[in-house]
Amino acid sequence: MNWVIRLKLNDLAGRKINNWTVVERVEGRNSGGAWWFCKCECGTTREVLGTNIIRGRSKSCGCINKTHLMNRSRLFYTYYAMKKRCKDTSSSRYGGRGITYCEEWESFIPFMNWALANGYNDELQIDRIDYDGNYEPSNCRWVTSKENNNNRCNNVPIEINGVKKNLSTWAEEYGLSVQTVWRRYNKLGKTGMDLIKPVKKTGGSQNCAIKAKVS
Q: What is the DSSP-derived secondary structure letter of residue 101?
């Protein structure tokens, strides 16, 4: 073993090499060289031979290969899109208002493990339970597209005349449907009192009378 590798092997504790974070040397195990207790990005812990870490023979617990196999899956796209939204500081719904994801989900494998253990399938979408909360295991669930749209509409915080309430609360108080207020807010860009104006009635009976008179 050359002196460079020997020097490196004497000081691996605390270093991050590929997906491994080296925690401490394993005492009493010298078979083949120095062994180190390591933690992978996905959370798996394992004793790894130091020379394998330095030379890149061992880069992870095997999760790198899993990620490679999954990187074209719908779940990986969901994960990628989640991180992209959170990092977009121009987004008023996500990164621009401080919405982020937990440290645990910096790596795909822990996210994948959580998803598969909590009912994920390719027909579902990720949803935050608390609209103002972050993406993390305690605040996320898998829902249908329809449920996600309803949750998004209902939980949007809207401020009118200095008072902030959820969109669904404003709609209920002013006798409007959630869909009407959501359309004004999301599609038409309305704000303030324009969001909760009464819906204009068309006066159907009067129009019918006019049509009958013309006939």
A: B
